[in-house]
Design goal:
CATH superfamily of the largest domain: Response regulator
Oligomer: single chain
Structural class: alpha/beta
Order of helices and strands: EEEHEHEHEEHEHEHEHHEEHEHHE
Largest sheet: 5 strands, parallel
CATH architecture of the largest domain: 3-Layer(aba) Sandwich
Number of domains: 2
Length: 318
């Protein structure tokens, strides 16, 4: 097990003996490609470092199905279990874990603003048993990309769940950036994924392109956004690149698989090197990638500028 020492400097997580089996709990708010990719990246990096499942490491993987009551129940179970470390994927499940568990290291990922979410005191020095990676999007670059591919665009539609703290942060940033770029923001909010289709339909005839932030509710129903966009020839720009092959036009975004791997690197520093979560800065993804969907561009009659094509990863619909 992980031994704990409390000293004047804070809480120390001591290295686990190599002869014992590591026990990691993974709590994820909902299943969708981005969050699944973060989980897979995390596990893959652990495997590459010699941690073989059912030999010297075990994972408890729990999905909350978008329900905070479930998330709290899972967090309580993890609190009671003899785990060495917890991976919390997405803001709601990170909050559930951090609110209940104070004596085990918690690594977070796919969280846009850990400070605003109340998970850490400061991004540079968390001050708690929580650290990890954020998925803060390069919003300025994404909107500038949209203007390059959709010249003359004046209005952007944004769908999001106002109950998701990470989404609210992104939309606040988007408003500022859009204003600087001369874009008008048209918003549509949803409470559940069932409302995404109607929200997307509300943009018909009102916007020049749609922006989808890294919102778990909306991304879970991304096919509804694509359906409306295809039928009405509206380009879609998502916050993360996994959605481009699913019918979006393009993005400069976060790769969640790589983000999961980066989070695992931080976890290994805690478990094997004795690093302290409270002094480990929250990290952003080290690299972003320009991804453009050739099929969508052709369907919309959009010509990809040579300068963009040269530096982009070109994909097609899955």
């Amino acid at each position: 097990m992980v031994l704990l020492l409390v000293a004047a400097g804070g809480l120390f997580f001591l290295r686990k003996p190599t002869t014992e089996t590591l026990k990691i709990g993974i709590i994820q708010i909902v299943e969708h490609p981005a969050l699944d990719a973060a989980r897979e990246g995390f596990i893959d990096l652990f495997t590459e470092h010699g941690n073989v499942e059912d030999e010297n490491i075990t994972y408890q993987i729990q999905i909350a199905q978008g329900d905070m009551a479930n998330a709290n129940t899972i967090a309580q179970k993890f609190k009671n279990d003899k785990l060495d470390l917890i991976l919390a994927i997405a803001t709601p499940t990170a909050q559930a874990a951090a609110n209940l568990i104070k004596d085990k290291p918690i690594l977070i990922t796919a969280v846009t603003d850990p400070v605003a979410a109340g998970l850490v005191e400061n991004a540079e020095r968390p001050g708690t048993n929580v650290t990890g990676t954020n998925d803060l999007q390069p919003l300025a670059g994404q909107f500038e990309l949209a203007q390059q591919l959709v010249p003359g665009a004046k209005r952007v539609g944004i769908i999001y769940n106002a109950g998701e703290a990470n989404s609210v942060t992104q939309v606040q940033m988007a408003r500022t950036i859009a204003d600087q770029l001369g874009l008008e923001v048209v918003e549509a909010t949803v409470d559940t994924s069932a409302g995404v289709l109607q929200a997307a339909q509300s943009f018909i005839g009102r916007v020049d392109f749609i922006y989808v932030p890294t919102d778990n509710t909306v991304v879970s129903a991304f096919s509804s956004v694509v359906k409306v966009a295809e039928e009405n020839r509206i380009p879609v720009f998502p916050g993360e690149e996994n959605l481009v092959p699913q019918g979006a036009l393009a993005t400069v975004g976060v790769n969640y698989y790589r983000l999961g791997r980066q989070t695992a690197e931080m976890a290994l520093r805690i478990l094997k090197d004795g690093a302290k979560p409270e002094t480990m800065p929250i990290e952003s993804q080290k690299e972003t990638e320009l991804v453009i969907n050739e099929d969508v561009a052709q369907a919309l009659g959009i010509s990809i500028p040579a300068a963009l094509r040269e530096k982009a990863t070109i994909v097609r619909n899955r």
